[in-house]
Design a protein that fits this description.
Length: 170
């Protein structure tokens, strides 16, 4: 009888989880170990942070072969119109709109994404963690905002946001 090897269960760890663990072990324990989540004012668990909203618009934009900025902006307006908790997150929606409108104006002025051949958007990637964590089946998990190519060179783009324009960036 031939036995098939049993693959060890993998424990995926993200950078967010690692940073949470470093900052506050209790928050990590409650959120990642016990899997307790923060609830929004409307009772849902859906994130409405500025970064999530901006990433959703840019995902819509870069997945569209026509790269229609107005359609991508409309996706933000639709998300806000259909979000039952939108009145609690109007600041986040407004800031996200300002950021993506500015981003699209910058692209128009500079042509920074001209000639990009998009290969993947919001692509998850993983690899085994280095020793000694690999012995415990730990894998590192990440997400690339954009994988693209220009002039035969493979590129990755990472979009970052802030929660306001007045606090200094660390």
């Amino acid at each position: 009888m031939i036995e098939t090897p049993v693959e060890e269960p993998r424990r995926y760890v993200t950078n967010s989880e690692l940073q949470t663990f470093k900052a506050c072990k209790r928050e990590w324990y409650l959120g990642y170990h016990l899997k307790l989540t923060k609830r929004r004012a409307d009772g849902s668990e859906k994130a409405a942070t500025t970064g999530t909203l901006v990433h959703n618009v840019l995902e819509t934009y870069y997945k569209d072969p026509e790269r229609d900025a107005s359609a991508a902006l409309q996706s933000l307006r639709t998300a806000q119109a259909t979000d039952p908790g939108a009145e609690h997150y109007s600041d986040e929606y407004n800031l996200a709109a300002i950021m993506v409108e500015g981003y699209f104006l910058w692209l128009e002025e500079t042509g920074a994404d001209q000639g990009l051949k998009v290969h993947a958007v919001e692509q998850k990637i993983s690899c085994p963690a280095p020793a000694p964590f690999d012995e415990f089946g730990v894998w590192l998990l990440g997400k690339l905002d954009l994988i693209a190519e220009r002039n035969g060179i493979l590129l990755t783009l990472d979009h970052k946001t802030v929660q306001n324009f007045s606090d200094p960036v660390a």
